[in-house]
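Field reference: "sequence" (input) and "structure" (output). Example, Mur ligase central domain-containing protein:
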Amino acid sequence: MQIRKLIVSQRSTLTHRKPLSNFHLESKQWLSTFTEEPELEGFIQFIDSLKNYEKSGVPKDAGTDSDDGFDLGRMKRLMTRLGNPLSKFKSVHIAGTKGKGSTAAYLSNILRSEGYSVGCYTSPHMLSIRERMSVGKMGKPVSSNALNCLFHSIKRSLNEAIVRENGCLSHFEVLTAVAFALFAQENVDIAIIEAGLGGARDATNVISSSELDASIVTTIGEEHLAALGGSLESIAMAKAGIIKHGRPVILGGPFLPHIDRILRDRASSMLSPIVSASDARVRTSIKGIGTFKGRPSQSCDLVIELDHGSQSSIELRDLNLSMLGTHQLQNAVTATCTALCLRNEGWRISNGSIRAGLENTFLPGRSQFLTSKEAEKLGLSGSTVLLDGAHTKDSAKALLETIQTTFPDSQLAIVVAMASDKDHLAFAKEFLSGKQLEAVFLTEADIAGGTSRTTSATALRDCWIQASRELGIEVLHDRMTRFRELFEDNFISSTRDSKHETILAAQNSLSDSLRFANQILRERTRNEPGILVVTGSLHIVSLVLASLNR
């Protein structure tokens, strides 16, 4: 298989045969925090002085269209103060539990392939806040100079707005306003805007129907339950809030029948045409795994026939997608349906541009296999390293399906860090009930640069122990006397005596977690390559990627 040749390195001699207790380096010492360009220091200090719900967590019901929801009036007044930048370009607005960022990337690249100047606003970022705003025909993050100049040109207006709103403007609201001002300044043809939380009361939901070309709802799942009303139905209603009067909505899906009805009822009430990316008129298949432009890729067929006629139909055979998994194929379908919808709205978009845009799309941290050299730089030689920001039950399932497709016979070890507002038990159950796991190391990573939403390694471990008991799966965990007796003197070599058990341990240090998981995997796989997965949030993935850029 070609993918193996690309990312699997030669096995090397096992090292670091020390007791577990000897390793207590903090992850911050090993993975240096990414430092923003000095030119942006003033901007970063300014927005960091504002309330940041990504760090602290979102209040209960804040994303619902109710008295407890975020006040969109603040954002509307800020838009007026900045000269209504949204009126200068057309927009596509994207909401959904999963798939927003990938769909935005696919659609942005389709439009850029046609020659349009595109603004794209997404969150969160991996290494630099500039990643949240790409602009122009090349798809690169906004430059430090351009962002700094824009900030200083509107800083007075931002300060006036903060005073006017009694200091209630948030980090995300101001960042969103800066992005909209940037897109207007750069005269983009169209902007692809990803909602931050929910939709109805999200700061991005100040786009009027006259400024909107289409809205997209990718998926509906049980994430941010407390902030979005406490049920799957309330989440669907919140995300359906981006649907605007008379403007088409693309539904990604597939959705549960009653959730699909909520979305369609909202569209019907708004007289919005509906395009479904998951009905019988869409046919897809994954034919195999290989490499494309130096990256692992999946070869796919994609056929869409929304209506009779070439404007609403497309057939793409042997399409190479560098983002792997059936979920990423579905995201590509959703973006393609949107492109066909825009074509019907009068945008010039060729089938060739759709293919080129899809094939040129890659996002770090989404089913990202590291190369052998990258793994070696991390000190993880001998295993195939996979980074993925999965943090829900559904995304864990999708990740396992991707692994099963690419390396069906490989043994697996995982390193996990998660935010406190995620369903840790459901996430653990999905992994434990999937492939046999050789080792699970639970660790910690700062969330959005802070610790208030970080889940402790021990709390995660206890959730995994509970999950294993509820599933009836035996694990050897570090609260057991037998674990301590077995690994007291020689941790790695002792794994031979627990050959058929999943080793489960908490480690505060990310570096230690990676090293131990890799050594256990190599000890157990012997001559066969194993897969070391880093997952649980994009924040732990960003720490690993940051270390590659030191």
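The longest strand covers residues 282-292.
The radius of gyration is 23 Å.
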